[in-house]
Amino acid sequence: MTQHFICIHGHFYQPPRENPWLEEIEIQDSAHPYHDWNARISAECYVRNAAARILDDHECIVRITNNYARMSFNFGPTLLNWMAQHNIAVYTAILEADRSSRERFSGHGSAMAQPYNHMILPLANSADRTTQILWGIRDFRHRFGRAPEGMWLPEAAVDLETLAIMAELGIAFTVLSPHQANRVRPLGVDAWSDVSDGSIDPRRPYRQRLPNDRSMAIFFYDGPISRDVAFNGLLNNGEAFCARLLSAFEDQREDDQLVHIATDGETFGHHHRYGDMALAYVLEKIDSGKSARLTNYGEFLENRPPTWEVEIKENTAWSCVHGVERWKNDCGCHSGRRLEWNQGWREPLRNALDWLRDTLAEAFTENAGGLFADPWQARNDYIEVILARSTVSIDRFLKQHLKDPPDATARIRALKLLEMQRQAMLMYTSCGWFFDELSGLET
Q1: Fewer beta carbons within 10 Å, N or C terminal of the chain?
Q2: pLDDT tens for residues 195-242?
Q3: H-helix or E-strand containing 9?
Q4: What span, in angstroms and rounded, lies between the C-alpha atoms of 16 and 12?
Q5: Is the peptide bond before 33 cis (omega within 30 degrees of 0)?
Q6: Cα 39 from chain centroid?
Q7: First vs last C-alpha separation in the chain
Q8: Residue 136 per-residue DSSP state
Q9: In whole angstroms, what is the distance from residue 12 CA to residue 266 CA?
Q10: Strand pairing category for 215-220 and 173-176
């Protein structure tokens, strides 16, 4: 008998808002009455999903539940770093949710990793791609105590080189938009079917062959339902939300089906007030019913590996119909700009930062070469210092990577060079290009 499964994925993320000299977020007036936007969104979304209320017909609270434990989710490393310092209760609830989900979903945790600071990886050079993915994996292991099975890509921006690096570093799957698939076919069949119009069947996983003789499993989320959750008010009614998910299964199919959606996690409480409660209601109703079973991507993939193959559209993203042009050109994508305005500033900003990145890379190679046995390996491993900025951690790192025992001058110089590289990657955080105004807070 065919089985029905449901998975709801939330991409929870905030950019690194810290002043680079202070490593603290300064007051952001637009977030009033909160100190900054991290604090405001945390109160409106992250806190609420860690303790979501389920009401009865009389609007009395009958249960308080941790939504993260029954959904699929990823949290950006820069957000978790802030949360560990400023909201330890929610941070702890998120880690506990992953532990709980492992018990619920056959040993598969619901947390997915993410490249470190939300850089658009198809626009990055190979060194930055590798470091971003590696830092994301190591940050995940540090916090969740296990290796990640899946990785959410920033803005779901993808190309084959990025997937190949992920696969080489042990990532088994990712999640993309249905419009990022080009063609599909059953494994072992020669003929391809064109799905470039977004018509891919999202109810099964697919295998993408990669240049390094590896492969990646890809889940393509249900586009219409995800869009209605994010933008068209489906969260206004928990019953309607639940019915919509259950209606997406296809009758008369012999294979097991997965109905899954993906949206910004901030949809559940920040973008849509009480969205956390609608989510809690749906998770509870499905979990206690017989029409479908909750799962996560890792569990589904273990029991139902891909029987179809896909070829993705390279250099595409979930939030730009022009590929990845939103982060380098005035492609027309905007978030509600004035009619007389444009985003002609995007290209020169991208070109300027590319020039700066390449100039700093030359300076890093030249100056770090006399200090480190392998400067770029040292950069990859520098995440261990970022995760624990203690004297012990720094001493251990320098002992491992420096050619000679450092004096005070060499020690400071080595750390300055690595901080220069860290900031050179942080400057590419996607929010810098996403919005309309060059002088806005995000850019």
Answers
A1: N
A2: 999 999 999 999 999 998 999 999 999 999 999 999 999 999 999 999
A3: strand 4-12
A4: 13
A5: yes
A6: 20
A7: 53
A8: H
A9: 6
A10: parallel
What is the rounded distance in angstroms from the CA atom of residue 319 to the CA atom of residue 263? 11
Specify the pLDDT at position 212.
83
H/E stretch holding 40: helix 37-41
Q: Which two tokens stand for residue 221?
A: 């989320």
The pLDDT of residue 339 is above 80: no
Assess contact for 269 and 276: CB atoms under 8 A. yes
- What's the distance, CA 317 to chain centroid? 12
pTM of the full structure: 0.96
Residue 210's nearest CA partner among 165, 148, 152 is: 165
Q: Is the pLDDT of residue 57 over 90?
A: no
Q: Are strands 52-55 and 61-65 parallel, antiparallel or unpaired?
A: antiparallel
Give the alpha-carbon dihedral of 156, 160, 164, 170, to 10 degrees.
Answer: 30
Residue 327: C-alpha distances to residues 160, 359, 369, 399 (Å): 19, 21, 32, 39
- Dihedral of alpha carbons 421, 424, 428, 432, sign: positive
C-beta of residue 173 within 8 angstroms of C-beta of residue 217:
yes
CA 279 centroid distance within chain: 19
CA distances to 76, 89, 220, 312, 335 from 84, in Å: 12, 9, 31, 36, 31
Phi, psi (degrees; rounded to nearest 5) at 390: -115, 160
Residue 43 token pair: 């109160």
Q: What is the layout of strands, in order, in the sheet containing 308-312?
A: 173-176, 215-220, 206-209, 308-312, 181-186, 193-194
Spatial CA neighbour of 269 closest among 229, 222, 326, 302 = 229
Residue 98, SS3 per DSSP: helix
108, HSE (Cβ side, Cα atoms, 13 Å): 22
Give the HSE-up count for residue 74: Cα atoms under 13 Å, Cβ half-sphere: 31
User: 19: burial class by Cβ within 10 Å (0-12, 13-18, 19+)?
Assistant: exposed
Angstrom distance (rounded) from CA 140 to CA 119: 17
Question: What amino acid is encoded at 29 in this protein?
Answer: D
- Mean residue pLDDT across the chain: 96
CB 309 within 8 A of CB 191: no
Non-local (6+) Cβ contacts of 51 within 8 A are: 64, 65, 66, 93
The string of DSSP codes covering 274-327 is: THHHHHHHHHHHHHHSSS-EE--HHHHHHHS---EEEEEPSSBBTTBTTSSGGG
Task: Render pLDDT for 381-413 as a digit per residue (tens, 0 to 9).
Answer: 999 999 999 999 999 999 999 999 889 999 999
Place of tokens 């296990």: 146
